[in-house]
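Standup notes
- DV: blocked on the single-chain target, sequence here:
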Amino acid sequence: QVQLVESGGGLVQPGGSLRLSCAASGFTFSTYGMHWVRQAPGKGLEWVSRIYGSGDTSGGSTYYADSVKGRFTISRDDAKNTLYLQMNSLFPEDTAHYYCVRSLGTANNYWGQGTHVTVSS
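- DV (later): unblocked, structure below
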C-alpha cells in the first residue's frame, strides 16, 4: 500500500535551515507529482510546493507558494523514492506541521503523518 513517511522536523532558530525528507513506498514514485503542504498551529492547510514527476508533461518542474519562494527548495531522488524540502532563512511563521502529499487535489490523494517544524529563539 502507499506509504509516505516524513522526517527531519525539529526546533530551529529564526534564520536557520532544515531539510525535510519524505520516504515513499507502495507506488512508482518517479511517475507522480508530489507536494508539500503545511498546517500552522490553529490555522488551515497551506500548500507549500510541488514537483512534477516523470509521468507529467512538466516532469521535474517545481512551483512554490509566494510565502516560501526563494527560501525553500523542493527536490526528489527517484532512485531513493524520496522527496525533500530544503528550508532556509526560516521565520517563526514557518512553524507548522509539514505533510508530504501524493496526488493532491484528486480522489487518489495520499498523505504522510507529517513532521513538525518549530522556528523559535
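- Follow-up: The longest strand covers residues 18-25.
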